[in-house]
Protein backbone atom coordinates (compact mmCIF):
# COMPACT_ATOMS: atom_id res chain seq x y z
CA UNK A 1 0.00 0.00 0.00
CA UNK A 2 1.15 3.53 -0.82
CA UNK A 3 -0.26 6.63 0.86
CA UNK A 4 0.41 10.34 0.60
CA UNK A 5 -1.28 13.21 2.42
CA UNK A 6 -2.28 16.69 1.25
CA UNK A 7 -3.11 19.66 3.49
CA UNK A 8 -6.15 21.43 2.02
CA UNK A 9 -6.79 23.82 4.91
CA UNK A 10 -6.09 24.34 8.58
CA UNK A 11 -8.14 21.24 9.45
CA UNK A 12 -8.90 19.64 6.07
CA UNK A 13 -6.74 16.81 4.75
CA UNK A 14 -6.75 14.46 1.77
CA UNK A 15 -5.18 11.00 1.77
CA UNK A 16 -4.29 9.48 -1.60
CA UNK A 17 -4.01 5.72 -1.28
CA UNK A 18 -3.02 3.01 -3.74
CA UNK A 19 -3.39 -0.74 -3.13
CA UNK A 20 -1.92 -3.30 -5.60
CA UNK A 21 -4.66 -5.02 -7.59
CA UNK A 22 -2.74 -8.25 -7.13
CA UNK A 23 -3.64 -8.22 -3.41
CA UNK A 24 -7.29 -7.56 -4.20
CA UNK A 25 -7.43 -10.27 -6.85
CA UNK A 26 -5.84 -12.74 -4.42
CA UNK A 27 -8.43 -11.98 -1.75
CA UNK A 28 -11.30 -12.27 -4.22
CA UNK A 29 -9.97 -15.64 -5.35
CA UNK A 30 -9.59 -16.82 -1.75
CA UNK A 31 -13.15 -15.86 -0.82
CA UNK A 32 -14.60 -17.46 -3.93
CA UNK A 33 -12.79 -20.73 -3.13
CA UNK A 34 -14.17 -20.71 0.41
CA UNK A 35 -17.64 -20.01 -0.96
CA UNK A 36 -17.36 -22.84 -3.49
CA UNK A 37 -16.94 -25.37 -0.63
CA UNK A 38 -20.40 -24.64 0.76
CA UNK A 39 -22.50 -22.89 -1.91
CA UNK A 40 -25.72 -24.54 -3.11
CA UNK A 41 -26.78 -24.12 -6.74
CA UNK A 42 -29.48 -25.84 -8.78
CA UNK A 43 -28.13 -28.86 -10.66
CA UNK A 44 -25.10 -29.39 -8.42
CA UNK A 45 -24.52 -31.16 -5.14
CA UNK A 46 -23.48 -28.86 -2.22
CA UNK A 47 -19.75 -28.20 -2.41
CA UNK A 48 -19.48 -29.62 -5.92
CA UNK A 49 -20.22 -26.45 -7.90
CA UNK A 50 -17.35 -25.78 -10.36
CA UNK A 51 -15.20 -22.83 -9.36
CA UNK A 52 -15.77 -21.17 -12.75
CA UNK A 53 -19.54 -21.25 -12.22
CA UNK A 54 -19.20 -19.82 -8.70
CA UNK A 55 -17.00 -17.03 -10.05
CA UNK A 56 -19.52 -16.21 -12.78
CA UNK A 57 -22.40 -15.95 -10.31
CA UNK A 58 -20.70 -14.38 -7.33
CA UNK A 59 -17.52 -12.79 -8.66
CA UNK A 60 -18.90 -9.27 -8.99
CA UNK A 61 -20.50 -9.28 -5.53
CA UNK A 62 -17.38 -10.69 -3.85
CA UNK A 63 -15.15 -8.16 -5.60
CA UNK A 64 -17.28 -5.25 -4.36
CA UNK A 65 -17.11 -6.65 -0.82
CA UNK A 66 -13.32 -6.99 -1.05
CA UNK A 67 -12.93 -3.45 -2.43
CA UNK A 68 -15.04 -2.08 0.42
CA UNK A 69 -13.07 -3.99 3.05
CA UNK A 70 -9.78 -2.98 1.41
CA UNK A 71 -10.79 0.67 1.40
CA UNK A 72 -11.70 0.62 5.10
CA UNK A 73 -8.58 -1.29 6.17
CA UNK A 74 -6.12 0.66 4.05
CA UNK A 75 -7.63 3.97 5.16
CA UNK A 76 -7.38 2.93 8.81
CA UNK A 77 -3.78 1.80 8.35
CA UNK A 78 -2.86 5.07 6.60
CA UNK A 79 -4.51 7.18 9.30
CA UNK A 80 -2.62 5.34 12.03
CA UNK A 81 0.66 5.58 10.10
CA UNK A 82 0.21 9.34 9.68
CA UNK A 83 -0.94 9.71 13.32
CA UNK A 84 -4.13 11.51 12.26
CA UNK A 85 -7.26 12.08 14.37
CA UNK A 86 -10.16 12.04 11.91
CA UNK A 87 -13.12 14.27 12.78
CA UNK A 88 -16.47 13.32 11.26
CA UNK A 89 -16.92 11.10 8.23
CA UNK A 90 -14.40 10.94 5.36
CA UNK A 91 -15.49 11.45 1.75
CA UNK A 92 -14.11 8.61 -0.40
CA UNK A 93 -13.57 8.94 -4.14
CA UNK A 94 -12.26 6.11 -6.32
CA UNK A 95 -9.94 7.14 -9.14
CA UNK A 96 -10.80 5.92 -12.67
CA UNK A 97 -9.05 2.68 -13.61
CA UNK A 98 -7.65 1.78 -17.04
CA UNK A 99 -6.64 -1.53 -18.57
CA UNK A 100 -3.03 -0.86 -17.70
CA UNK A 101 -3.77 0.09 -14.10
CA UNK A 102 -2.12 -2.23 -11.63
CA UNK A 103 -3.43 -0.53 -8.50
CA UNK A 104 -6.74 0.32 -6.84
CA UNK A 105 -6.44 4.05 -6.19
CA UNK A 106 -8.74 6.31 -4.21
CA UNK A 107 -8.72 9.49 -2.15
CA UNK A 108 -10.27 10.25 1.23
CA UNK A 109 -11.02 13.86 2.17
CA UNK A 110 -11.72 14.65 5.83
CA UNK A 111 -11.09 17.02 8.70
CA UNK A 112 -8.84 16.40 11.69
CA UNK A 113 -9.41 17.37 15.29
CA UNK A 114 -8.01 20.80 16.18
CA UNK A 115 -5.48 21.68 18.82
CA UNK A 116 -7.29 22.89 21.92
CA UNK A 117 -5.47 25.87 23.44
CA UNK A 118 -6.78 26.15 27.01
CA UNK A 119 -6.50 29.64 28.47
CA UNK A 120 -5.88 30.76 32.03
CA UNK A 121 -8.83 30.73 34.44
CA UNK A 122 -7.03 32.21 37.44
CA UNK A 123 -8.61 35.65 36.92
CA UNK A 124 -12.05 34.33 36.05
CA UNK A 125 -14.76 35.04 38.66
CA UNK A 126 -17.41 32.39 39.38
CA UNK A 127 -20.37 33.46 41.53
CA UNK A 128 -21.73 30.61 43.62
CA UNK A 129 -25.27 31.29 44.95
CA UNK A 130 -25.65 30.72 48.69
CA UNK A 131 -28.99 29.94 50.31
CA UNK A 132 -29.86 28.24 53.59
CA UNK A 133 -33.27 26.59 53.61
CA UNK A 134 -35.27 27.58 56.69
CA UNK A 135 -38.89 27.77 57.85
CA UNK A 136 -39.72 30.63 55.45
CA UNK A 137 -38.64 28.59 52.42
CA UNK A 138 -40.56 25.55 53.67
CA UNK A 139 -43.68 27.70 54.19
CA UNK A 140 -43.45 29.11 50.66
CA UNK A 141 -43.09 25.63 49.21
CA UNK A 142 -46.07 24.33 51.17
CA UNK A 143 -48.14 27.23 49.83
CA UNK A 144 -47.14 26.25 46.30
CA UNK A 145 -48.17 22.65 47.04
CA UNK A 146 -51.51 23.93 48.37
CA UNK A 147 -52.03 26.00 45.22
CA UNK A 148 -51.37 22.94 43.08
CA UNK A 149 -54.22 21.20 44.90
CA UNK A 150 -56.70 24.03 44.52
CA UNK A 151 -60.36 23.08 44.08
CA UNK A 152 -63.02 25.41 42.68
CA UNK A 153 -66.49 25.93 44.13
CA UNK A 154 -69.44 27.70 42.39
CA UNK A 155 -70.36 31.20 43.63
CA UNK A 156 -73.29 33.49 42.84
CA UNK A 157 -71.29 36.74 42.89
CA UNK A 158 -69.50 38.43 40.01
CA UNK A 159 -66.16 37.09 38.88
CA UNK A 160 -62.99 38.39 40.56
CA UNK A 161 -59.29 37.92 39.95
CA UNK A 162 -58.28 34.31 40.62
CA UNK A 163 -61.76 32.90 39.96
CA UNK A 164 -62.33 30.26 37.32
CA UNK A 165 -64.83 31.36 34.71
CA UNK A 166 -66.47 29.06 32.17
CA UNK A 167 -67.63 30.96 29.10
CA UNK A 168 -68.60 30.78 25.45
CA UNK A 169 -67.73 33.55 23.00
CA UNK A 170 -67.81 34.57 19.37
CA UNK A 171 -65.57 37.14 17.72
CA UNK A 172 -66.12 38.95 14.43
CA UNK A 173 -64.14 41.42 12.33
CA UNK A 174 -66.33 43.69 10.22
CA UNK A 175 -69.23 41.34 10.93
CA UNK A 176 -67.42 38.19 9.79
CA UNK A 177 -66.32 35.39 12.12
CA UNK A 178 -62.61 34.52 11.95
CA UNK A 179 -60.59 31.38 12.64
CA UNK A 180 -59.89 30.89 16.34
CA UNK A 181 -62.42 33.54 17.35
CA UNK A 182 -65.04 31.18 18.74
CA UNK A 183 -65.17 28.82 21.72
CA UNK A 184 -67.73 26.87 23.73
CA UNK A 185 -67.51 26.26 27.48
CA UNK A 186 -63.92 27.41 27.79
CA UNK A 187 -62.58 27.60 31.35
CA UNK A 188 -60.05 30.33 32.22
CA UNK A 189 -58.62 31.87 35.37
CA UNK A 190 -59.42 35.58 35.62
CA UNK A 191 -56.11 37.45 35.62
CA UNK A 192 -54.24 34.22 34.92
CA UNK A 193 -52.57 35.46 31.74
CA UNK A 194 -54.37 33.00 29.47
CA UNK A 195 -56.19 35.75 27.55
CA UNK A 196 -55.28 39.03 25.90
CA UNK A 197 -55.46 41.81 28.47
CA UNK A 198 -58.51 43.53 26.91
CA UNK A 199 -60.43 40.23 26.99
CA UNK A 200 -59.34 39.55 30.57
CA UNK A 201 -60.44 43.03 31.65
CA UNK A 202 -63.99 42.33 30.43
CA UNK A 203 -64.58 39.38 32.80
CA UNK A 204 -64.47 40.82 36.37
CA UNK A 205 -67.96 41.42 37.73
CA UNK A 206 -69.71 39.03 35.32
CA UNK A 207 -71.99 36.43 36.95
CA UNK A 208 -73.18 33.07 35.70
CA UNK A 209 -75.70 33.75 32.92
CA UNK A 210 -74.38 37.26 32.12
CA UNK A 211 -73.51 38.31 28.57
CA UNK A 212 -71.34 41.18 27.38
CA UNK A 213 -70.16 42.72 24.15
CA UNK A 214 -66.82 44.50 23.81
CA UNK A 215 -64.15 45.37 21.29
CA UNK A 216 -60.57 44.14 21.28
CA UNK A 217 -57.61 45.22 19.17
CA UNK A 218 -55.12 42.46 18.48
CA UNK A 219 -51.43 43.37 18.91
CA UNK A 220 -49.56 44.07 15.68
CA UNK A 221 -47.17 41.19 16.49
CA UNK A 222 -49.95 38.72 17.34
CA UNK A 223 -49.14 35.14 16.31
CA UNK A 224 -52.33 34.93 14.22
CA UNK A 225 -51.14 36.99 11.24
CA UNK A 226 -54.63 37.20 9.69
CA UNK A 227 -55.98 39.19 12.68
CA UNK A 228 -52.80 40.96 13.89
CA UNK A 229 -53.40 44.68 14.36
CA UNK A 230 -57.15 44.41 13.62
CA UNK A 231 -60.08 45.29 15.90
CA UNK A 232 -62.61 42.57 16.64
CA UNK A 233 -66.04 42.62 18.30
CA UNK A 234 -66.61 39.89 20.87
CA UNK A 235 -69.79 38.60 22.47
CA UNK A 236 -69.14 36.56 25.59
CA UNK A 237 -71.58 34.63 27.81
CA UNK A 238 -70.51 33.33 31.22
CA UNK A 239 -71.99 29.98 32.26
CA UNK A 240 -70.17 29.46 35.59
CA UNK A 241 -68.11 31.37 38.14
CA UNK A 242 -66.07 29.40 40.69
CA UNK A 243 -63.79 30.63 43.43
CA UNK A 244 -60.54 28.90 44.40
CA UNK A 245 -60.34 27.07 47.70
CA UNK A 246 -57.02 25.86 49.10
CA UNK A 247 -56.83 22.70 51.20
CA UNK A 248 -56.14 23.06 54.92
CA UNK A 249 -52.70 22.07 56.17
CA UNK A 250 -53.87 19.06 58.12
CA UNK A 251 -53.33 15.32 58.35
CA UNK A 252 -55.18 14.68 55.05
CA UNK A 253 -52.95 17.21 53.30
CA UNK A 254 -49.84 15.52 54.74
CA UNK A 255 -51.06 12.09 53.67
CA UNK A 256 -51.62 13.50 50.18
CA UNK A 257 -47.90 14.33 50.13
CA UNK A 258 -46.95 10.76 51.00
CA UNK A 259 -46.70 11.00 54.81
CA UNK A 260 -48.54 7.83 55.80
CA UNK A 261 -49.40 8.81 59.38
CA UNK A 262 -50.36 12.38 58.45
CA UNK A 263 -47.87 13.90 60.88
CA UNK A 264 -47.41 17.62 60.05
CA UNK A 265 -43.90 17.82 61.53
CA UNK A 266 -42.77 14.84 59.44
CA UNK A 267 -44.32 16.46 56.37
CA UNK A 268 -42.39 19.67 56.98
CA UNK A 269 -39.14 17.72 57.43
CA UNK A 270 -39.70 15.91 54.13
CA UNK A 271 -40.61 19.13 52.33
CA UNK A 272 -37.46 20.76 53.71
CA UNK A 273 -35.29 17.86 52.53
CA UNK A 274 -36.83 18.06 49.05
CA UNK A 275 -36.32 21.83 48.90
CA UNK A 276 -32.69 21.46 49.99
CA UNK A 277 -32.11 18.95 47.17
CA UNK A 278 -33.74 21.26 44.64
CA UNK A 279 -31.78 24.27 45.88
CA UNK A 280 -28.54 22.29 45.63
CA UNK A 281 -29.44 21.18 42.09
CA UNK A 282 -30.16 24.73 40.95
CA UNK A 283 -27.06 26.16 42.59
CA UNK A 284 -25.02 23.46 40.89
CA UNK A 285 -26.64 24.26 37.54
CA UNK A 286 -25.86 27.97 37.87
CA UNK A 287 -22.25 27.29 38.77
CA UNK A 288 -21.88 24.77 35.95
CA UNK A 289 -23.24 27.26 33.40
CA UNK A 290 -20.70 29.86 34.50
CA UNK A 291 -17.87 27.33 34.38
CA UNK A 292 -18.78 26.21 30.86
CA UNK A 293 -18.99 29.80 29.67
CA UNK A 294 -15.62 30.57 31.26
CA UNK A 295 -14.07 27.64 29.39
CA UNK A 296 -15.58 28.83 26.12
CA UNK A 297 -14.40 32.40 26.69
CA UNK A 298 -10.81 31.48 27.53
CA UNK A 299 -10.15 28.71 24.97
CA UNK A 300 -8.92 29.26 21.42
CA UNK A 301 -10.46 26.67 19.16
CA UNK A 302 -11.23 26.12 15.48
CA UNK A 303 -14.20 23.82 14.97
CA UNK A 304 -14.31 21.06 12.35
CA UNK A 305 -17.32 21.83 10.14
CA UNK A 306 -18.12 18.13 9.90
CA UNK A 307 -18.58 17.77 13.67
CA UNK A 308 -20.86 20.82 13.77
CA UNK A 309 -22.99 19.45 10.93
CA UNK A 310 -23.28 16.06 12.63
CA UNK A 311 -24.47 17.81 15.79
CA UNK A 312 -26.92 19.98 13.81
CA UNK A 313 -28.45 16.83 12.30
CA UNK A 314 -28.57 15.11 15.68
CA UNK A 315 -30.36 18.08 17.29
CA UNK A 316 -32.84 18.35 14.41
CA UNK A 317 -33.64 14.63 14.66
CA UNK A 318 -34.09 14.92 18.42
CA UNK A 319 -36.53 17.82 17.96
CA UNK A 320 -38.46 15.89 15.34
CA UNK A 321 -38.80 12.91 17.69
CA UNK A 322 -39.99 15.17 20.51
CA UNK A 323 -42.55 16.90 18.31
CA UNK A 324 -43.76 13.54 16.98
CA UNK A 325 -44.27 12.35 20.54
CA UNK A 326 -46.42 15.43 21.12
CA UNK A 327 -48.48 14.61 18.04
CA UNK A 328 -47.17 17.44 15.84
CA UNK A 329 -47.07 17.10 12.06
CA UNK A 330 -43.31 17.54 11.77
CA UNK A 331 -43.30 17.36 7.97
CA UNK A 332 -44.97 20.78 7.87
CA UNK A 333 -42.46 22.43 10.19
CA UNK A 334 -39.31 24.16 8.94
CA UNK A 335 -36.00 22.76 10.18
CA UNK A 336 -33.50 25.22 8.74
CA UNK A 337 -29.89 24.24 9.63
CA UNK A 338 -29.18 27.73 10.94
CA UNK A 339 -31.78 27.11 13.66
CA UNK A 340 -29.36 24.70 15.33
CA UNK A 341 -26.04 26.15 14.17
CA UNK A 342 -25.19 28.23 17.26
CA UNK A 343 -26.18 25.62 19.89
CA UNK A 344 -24.42 22.93 17.84
CA UNK A 345 -21.21 24.97 17.76
CA UNK A 346 -21.45 25.46 21.52
CA UNK A 347 -21.92 21.74 22.17
CA UNK A 348 -19.08 20.72 19.89
CA UNK A 349 -16.78 23.35 21.43
CA UNK A 350 -17.56 22.21 24.97
CA UNK A 351 -17.13 18.57 24.00
CA UNK A 352 -13.64 19.23 22.63
CA UNK A 353 -12.66 21.42 25.59
CA UNK A 354 -13.90 18.96 28.19
CA UNK A 355 -12.16 16.06 26.44
CA UNK A 356 -8.87 17.97 26.48
CA UNK A 357 -9.27 18.89 30.15
CA UNK A 358 -10.11 15.33 31.14
CA UNK A 359 -7.04 14.05 29.31
CA UNK A 360 -4.57 16.75 30.37
CA UNK A 361 -5.71 17.07 34.00
CA UNK A 362 -6.56 13.43 34.68
CA UNK A 363 -10.25 14.08 35.37
CA UNK A 364 -11.54 10.69 34.23
CA UNK A 365 -14.61 9.25 35.96
CA UNK A 366 -13.61 6.80 38.67
CA UNK A 367 -15.82 3.75 39.35
CA UNK A 368 -16.48 4.88 42.91
CA UNK A 369 -17.62 8.31 41.66
CA UNK A 370 -20.00 6.68 39.21
CA UNK A 371 -21.45 4.47 41.96
CA UNK A 372 -21.87 7.43 44.32
CA UNK A 373 -23.83 9.41 41.73
CA UNK A 374 -26.00 6.40 40.86
CA UNK A 375 -26.75 5.90 44.57
CA UNK A 376 -27.71 9.57 44.90
CA UNK A 377 -30.10 9.37 41.95
CA UNK A 378 -31.57 6.10 43.19
CA UNK A 379 -32.47 7.54 46.60
CA UNK A 380 -35.45 9.42 45.19
CA UNK A 381 -37.09 6.11 44.16
CA UNK A 382 -39.05 3.66 46.26
CA UNK A 383 -36.67 0.75 45.54
CA UNK A 384 -33.14 2.20 45.24
CA UNK A 385 -31.43 -1.20 44.85
CA UNK A 386 -33.43 -1.98 41.71
CA UNK A 387 -32.60 1.42 40.24
CA UNK A 388 -28.88 0.82 40.84
CA UNK A 389 -29.14 -2.55 39.11
CA UNK A 390 -31.04 -0.93 36.23
CA UNK A 391 -28.17 1.50 35.60
CA UNK A 392 -25.48 -1.19 35.65
CA UNK A 393 -27.45 -3.43 33.26
CA UNK A 394 -27.11 -0.93 30.41
CA UNK A 395 -23.80 0.39 28.99
CA UNK A 396 -25.71 3.36 27.53
CA UNK A 397 -27.23 4.38 30.87
CA UNK A 398 -23.90 3.87 32.61
CA UNK A 399 -22.20 6.05 29.99
CA UNK A 400 -24.67 8.85 30.74
CA UNK A 401 -23.74 8.75 34.43
CA UNK A 402 -20.03 8.67 33.58
CA UNK A 403 -20.54 11.76 31.42
CA UNK A 404 -22.16 13.58 34.34
CA UNK A 405 -19.25 12.59 36.61
CA UNK A 406 -16.77 13.92 34.05
CA UNK A 407 -18.61 17.24 33.96
CA UNK A 408 -18.60 17.40 37.77
CA UNK A 409 -14.86 16.71 37.79
CA UNK A 410 -14.27 19.50 35.27
CA UNK A 411 -16.43 21.94 37.25
CA UNK A 412 -14.62 21.11 40.48
CA UNK A 413 -11.24 21.55 38.80
CA UNK A 414 -12.23 24.96 37.40
CA UNK A 415 -13.50 26.04 40.82
CA UNK A 416 -10.12 25.08 42.27
CA UNK A 417 -8.25 27.47 39.97
CA UNK A 418 -10.76 30.28 39.40
CA UNK A 419 -11.91 33.03 41.76
CA UNK A 420 -15.04 31.77 43.50
CA UNK A 421 -17.34 34.19 45.30
CA UNK A 422 -20.22 32.92 47.47
CA UNK A 423 -23.14 35.32 47.09
CA UNK A 424 -26.45 35.18 48.95
CA UNK A 425 -29.51 34.77 46.77
CA UNK A 426 -33.23 35.10 47.47
CA UNK A 427 -35.25 31.91 47.46
CA UNK A 428 -37.76 33.22 44.92
CA UNK A 429 -35.01 34.32 42.54
CA UNK A 430 -33.25 30.98 42.63
CA UNK A 431 -36.45 28.97 42.18
CA UNK A 432 -37.86 31.17 39.41
CA UNK A 433 -34.70 31.82 37.44
CA UNK A 434 -32.42 28.98 38.44
CA UNK A 435 -33.34 26.51 35.77
CA UNK A 436 -30.38 24.88 34.07
CA UNK A 437 -29.94 25.88 30.47
DSSP summary: helix tally? 12
Q: Say what the CATH topology of the largest domain is.
A: Trigger factor, domain 2
Order of helices and strands: EEHHEEEHEEEHEEHHHHHHHEH
Whole-angstrom Rg: 33 Å
Helix-residue proportion: 40-55%
How many angstroms separate the termini?
50 Å
Tell me, briefly, the overall form.
Answer: extended
Category from helices, strands and their pairing: alpha+beta
> How many structural domains are formed by the residues?
3
Percent of residues in β-strands? 15-25%
Low-confidence stretches: 433-437
Give the overall average pLDDT. Answer: 92
Extended strand count: 11
Summarize the biggest pleated sheet: 5 strands, antiparallel
**In CATH terms, what is the architecture of the largest domain?**
Orthogonal Bundle
Q: What is the CATH superfamily label of the largest domain?
A: Trigger factor, C-terminal domain
Mind sketching the topology for me?
Blueprint: E1 2-7, E2 12-20, H1 21-36, H2 51-82, E3 86-94, E4 103-112, E5 125-130, H3 135-148, E6 151-154, E7 164-173, E8 176-189, H4 197-201, E9 211-217, E10 231-245, H5 251-256, H6 264-298, H7 305-325, H8 338-361, H9 367-378, H10 384-392, H11 395-417, E11 419-424, H12 427-433
Parallel strand pairs: 5-11
Antiparallel strand pairs: 1-2, 2-4, 3-4, 6-10, 7-8, 7-10, 9-10
What does the model show?
- The protein is α+β, with helices and mostly antiparallel strands and 437 residues long.
- It has 3 domains: 111 residues, 2-Layer Sandwich (Alpha-Beta Plaits); 165 residues, Trigger factor, C-terminal domain (Trigger factor, domain 2); 96 residues, Chitinase A, domain 3 (Roll), CATH 3.10.50.
- Helix 7 crosses helix 8.
- The two termini are 50 Å apart.
Amino acid sequence: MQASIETLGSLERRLNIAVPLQEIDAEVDSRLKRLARTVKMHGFRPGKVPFKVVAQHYGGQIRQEVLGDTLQKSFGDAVRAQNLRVAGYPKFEAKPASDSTQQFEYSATFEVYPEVALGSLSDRAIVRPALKVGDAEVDKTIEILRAQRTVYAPVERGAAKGDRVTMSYTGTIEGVEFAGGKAENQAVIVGGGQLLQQFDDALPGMKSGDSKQFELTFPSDYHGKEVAGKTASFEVRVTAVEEPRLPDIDADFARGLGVADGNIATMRDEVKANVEREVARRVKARVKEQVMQALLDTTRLELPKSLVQIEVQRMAQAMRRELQQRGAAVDTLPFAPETFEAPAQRRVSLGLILAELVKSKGLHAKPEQVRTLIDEQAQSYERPDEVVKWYYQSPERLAEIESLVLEDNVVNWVLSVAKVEDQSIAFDELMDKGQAK
